[in-house]
Design brief:
Blueprint: H1 2-8, H2 15-21, H3 35-45, E1 48-50, E2 56-59, E3 67-68, E4 73-74, E5 85-87, E6 91-93, H4 125-133, H5 161-172, H6 178-181
Antiparallel strand pairs: 1-2, 3-4, 5-6
């Protein structure tokens, strides 16, 4: 019950939602977005094109393959994302990890709402994007999601600084104000 409640805490009054309401589909430019935010949206939505060695040669980043709009929650069939947890100091956790929506990942001022990924090891969006930009296949990770291993290699997205900044700008458009202002999300102890 607690997990269901936590997953329900998300805004649907974001800049993304306003832009999406004005167009017929996500692939159209959102008139309320900057050029950078539209570029980030396109990178997020479009699948990458890889060479035989898993290096991106064109296309987008493929984020929507696991985090589909409009909820931006994780595909329930997603396997390990390459971040390996440690169990009892000896074993590794390569099981399917659950992730909240990417909505409200950052606060309205653009700062993260807390550490990211299931291990809490990443503290910035740059860290997370960097992880997905260069997936290393750990020797004992037998459960790595195949969407991260094109042609059997860990994906290398070869992101430019412009692409990273555009993707971050887009992710920030997924933050609304409702979770910060609606009384139903306020402390029950006040």
């Amino acid at each position: 019950a607690l997990a269901q409640f936590v997953r329900s805490i998300q805004s649907f009054d974001s800049k993304y939602d306003a832009g999406r309401a004005a167009v017929q589909n996500d692939n159209q430019a959102f008139s309320n977005f900057t050029a950078q935010e539209n570029q980030g949206k396109n990178l997020f939505l479009a699948p990458p094109v890889f060479d035989a060695n898993g290096i991106r040669t064109s296309g987008g980043l493929g984020c929507a393959g696991c985090h589909a709009p409009p909820e931006f929650d994780i595909d329930p069939n997603t396997k390990n994302n390459g971040v390996i947890g440690i169990l009892n100091g000896t074993g590794i956790d390569i099981s399917n990890t659950k992730a909240p929506s990417l909505r409200d990942l950052v606060k309205s001022d653009g700062t993260p709402n807390g550490p990211m990924m299931h291990t809490g090891n990443f503290t910035t969006l740059q860290n997370v994007i960097g992880h997905y930009g260069n997936i290393n296949i750990a020797p004992r990770n037998t459960n790595l999601d195949p969407r991260l291993t094109p042609n059997g290699f860990g994906q290398q997205l070869n992101l430019t600084a412009t692409e990273v900044n555009a993707l971050i700008a887009f992710i920030k458009t997924l933050t609304g104000t409702n979770v910060y202002t609606d009384p139903k999300w306020s402390s029950p102890f006040k």
